[in-house]
Amino acid sequence: MQEVYEKYLKELKSESGISEEELKDILQQFHPAAQMGIVSNMLFYILNLQTQQYEFVSEYAESVSGFTAEDFLEKGTAILQELLYEKSFKLLTEELFPKMNKVVTELPPELMKEAIFELGYHFKNKKTGELVPITEYSSYAKLDEQGRPILSSGVCLESNTEFEGVSGIVRIKLEKKQEVIFDKKIGYNTLPLTKTEKEIIKLLKEGRSRKEIAELQFVSSHTVGTHIKNIYRKLGVNKIAELLKLIENNPID
C-alpha cells in the first residue's frame, strides 16, 4: 500500500501552501456547517493539499469509518492506507485520479474553483472489518494566486448504492446548472483484463458469435475461444449469460 500511497501523493499533493491567518479564517467559516445535525452520520473534513494533513475532521468520523477524528488529524492522508479497501485505493490512485486531475487542471481558475468531485469507493471499517460503500463529495476550498488548489473540503457518507468498484464524477457549477465534464466507473473485476480481452467482451455484448469475433480480430476461432476461457477465469464466471450480467453492473472501458 505504501507504493500506492506514494502515487497518490504524486497526483494530489500541492506545491503551494496557505498562511496560518487564511487557514484560520476558512476554518471559522466551515465549523458551523460541521456541527449541523444533518452531518451526524458523515465524515466532514478540510484537507491541506500541501502538507496532506487534515486541518479539521468532524467528531462523527468514527461512526462512518471506525477511525476517530484524532486518528485523521494525527496521521493525515497516510491513514488512507488503512482506511480504504486495497482495490479501491489502487484503482482510485492509478486509474481515476490521473484522469480526473487532467480534466480539472486544464480548466481556467475561475472554473476550477467551481469544480465538484463525486467519488464512489469502499472503506474497510476499522472496528468491524466490513467493507462499507462510500460516496464522497469534495471541492477546492482555496486556490493560490496562480490558480493552484491548496485546500479542499469534503464529506464522506455511507452509500445505499452498491457497486463493486470505484467511480468518479466531476461537475462544474455554472450560473443556472451543473455540467458534468468527467464520468467514469471501473469495476474491481475488470482490472486484470488485457486490451484484447476487453475488446472481445465488447463484441460479445454486441451479440457477436465467436466466428464473427475471429474475423474482426483477424485471429482463429480457437484463439477467440482461448481468450474467452481466460476471461471467464479472471472474472469468476462460467458462461456468456453470467459474463453479460457481470459487465452490466461493472462496465468495462
Automatic annotation (TrEMBL):
Under SMART domains, the record lists: HTH_LUXR (SM00421)
Single Gene Ontology BP term? Answer: regulation of DNA-templated transcription
Quote the Gene3D superfamilies the UniProt record gives.
PAS domain (3.30.450.20), Winged helix-like DNA-binding domain superfamily/Winged helix DNA-binding domain (1.10.10.10)
The residues covered by the HTH luxR-type domain are 186-251
Q: Which UniProt keywords apply?
A: DNA-binding, Transcription, Transcription regulation
Q: Which domain of life is it from?
A: Bacteria
Keyword presence, Disulfide bond: no
Database matches in InterPro entries: Sig_transdc_resp-reg_C-effctor, Tscrpt_reg_LuxR_C, WH-like_DNA-bd_sf
Q: Which SUPFAM superfamilies match?
A: C-terminal effector domain of the bipartite response regulators
Kindly give the PROSITE patterns that the UniProt entry links to this protein.
Answer: HTH_LUXR_2
For this chain, one GO molecular function annotation is: DNA binding
Which named protein is this?
A: Regulatory LuxR family protein
Q: From what organism does this protein derive? A: Sediminitomix flava
